Amino acid sequence: MCGIAGLFFKNKSLEPFLGKLFSEMLDCMSSRGADSAGFAVYGSTVSAGNLKVTLQHPGPEFPWRQLSAALQKQFKQKPKVETVSNHAIFTLRGEEAAVQRFIRAQFPAVNIMSVGRRIEIMKETGLPCTVLERFGVREMRGSHAIGHTRMATESAVTTAGSHPFSTGQDLCLVHNGSLSNHNTLRRNLRREGIEFQTENDSEVAAGYLTWRLREGDTLDQALEKALKDLDGFYTFTIGTRDGFAVLRDPIACKPAVMAETADYVAMASEYRSLAVLPGIEKARIWEPEPAKIYTWNAKN
Amino acid sequence: MKNGTADLMEARGPKPRLKRVAKPKPSKPTEKARVVDLGKSTVRALNAALHEITVPEPALWKVKNPRGAHAIACGLQQPVMVEIEGPVGYYCAGMNQAATVIVKGNAGTGVAENMMSGFVHVQGNASQSAGATAHGGLLVIDGDASARCGISMKGVDIVVKGSVGHLSAFMAQSGNLVVCGDAGEALGDSIYEARIFVRGKVTDLGADCVEKPMRAEHRKLLAELLERAGVAAKPEEFRRYGSARKLYNFHIDHAGEY
């Protein structure tokens, strides 16, 4: 099992309530996955040329100031830092590859959760309600968020094995299901230069999308190819800079239900999660069809 | 489960080929409805109370605030009427015997799964595996049902006023599936002796499922099912599908189809 929840506001005036509503949706999915939880929130946008980098260290009191000082020395500017539990969000001007390379080389124990201009990925092992509390998700604001509650089947219960998985700037993936050809895919993707941290099958799906997007595919093209190359069960929800996408495998093994009103679009593994949303009684509710890509963004 | 075993034995026994199922008799409430608010009470308490009913006297129960909760009104064994005022989650009215369960909203996966008898009416859409493995009774879905509707059905009658998703009536063994809209891919794959009636278009038929002629007896059966479900359509508008009976036993010529 595993649970997924995603919420995207069409009505900007709802943005202050993202954290509250999304927390309730994700908490509701605890019964589908109680060993870890994670989410990506799309809140404030940093100005062009700047990067928002979310980092994590397993220890409770990592000296983020040291990392900040090192970044300042290397990139000749003082990064903005905000710490949330054992995660830290750095904002700095720089080129993504150079920043990632520097952090990996100088602070190998630090994990890079996400990079982009809006995205902040946070994840941790533990009961979803505890994880949500620890990161103060209820207070978060933004245009959209996707999240995951995990019941591990394929690999260990670790922070690195939790979802979402970053798949590029402002992009991430959550997965409910299991892939059967992930070892072959991982081998092939490693040859293409994609790096993996875990034995997790979902990380391979994320790596696959990272590879296709790097090769110049649009998200839709990458997902079309994923339908051919990924073998197994999946409902994917993909967070993008200005919206999210949903894709189910061709025989729809894993559940998904969607709701749309004039104010929002939401998806979840089960209707129970949608029941917490305002105006759900009048929402259009439907089950996404198998092998069909659904995309929402601020433009449509 | 005082009477459960006996009913089960009976349901598994041989059945006439064109069985006429007794019309379900929705209970006429003789007393004020009992109201259970799932915003205040648990599903477990509701189901326990419904299981405690021993006198088979008509009674009306109203369930408020279901909010998609799972396993509402499961395992009922008395001819009570349960009206659920909103959407339900998984396995609503599962294993139903004799009761009438009305869902005023959408239903999640496996509504009326393994129903033995009685009547289940979903007034919205139903998710996957509606009526799965059900032995008897009538399941009516006013909207659409998604994938695997009537999977492994064993004698139930299912009437879907909208369309059904892929792999509906997969390995269906007995009973009738009536689809007033369209049917998705691989309809009736590996079907045994169930009958499928579809009014709209069928994306494609599964292995060993073929179109069959509509004879007078089928039109009569279908007319009765449509009437019981409250559908105004005419039997002549439907086509019938069933088993070619080539996959009953392993045959090397069909190895690719199993």
Q: What report would you give on this structure?
A:
The complex is a heterodimer of chains A (300) and B (258). Chain A is of the alpha+beta class and 300 residues long. Chain A has 2 domains: 2-41 and 126-297, Aminohydrolase, N-terminal nucleophile (Ntn) domain (Glutamine Phosphoribosylpyrophosphate, subunit 1, domain 1); 46-117, Alpha-Beta Plaits (2-Layer Sandwich), CATH 3.30.70. Helix content of chain A is 27%, strand content 33%. Chain A has helices spanning 18-28, 64-75, 96-106, 128-134, 182-191, 201-214, 219-229, 271-274; strands spanning 2-9, 36-42, 50-56, 80-84, 87-93, 111-116, 119-125, 144-150, 165-168, 171-179, 232-240, 243-248, 257-260, 264-268, 284-286, 294-297. In chain A, strand 9 (165-168) and strand 10 form a beta hairpin. In chain A, helix 5 packs parallel to helix 6 (201-214) and helix 6 packs across helix 7. The longest helix of chain A has 14 residues, at 201-214. Chain A starts with a strand and ends with a strand. The model of chain A has no long low-confidence stretch (mean pLDDT 95). Chain B has 258 residues and is of the alpha/beta class. Chain B has one domain (31-248): Pectate Lyase C-like (3 Solenoid). Chain B contains 3 helices and 11 strands; from the N terminus they run αβαβββββββββαβ. Chain B has an 11-stranded mixed sheet, covered by helices on one side. The longest helix of chain B has 14 residues, at 216-229. The radius of gyration of chain B is 18 Å and the shape is elongated. Mean pLDDT of chain B is 89; it is low at 1-21. The chains are: A alpha+beta (300), B alpha/beta (258).
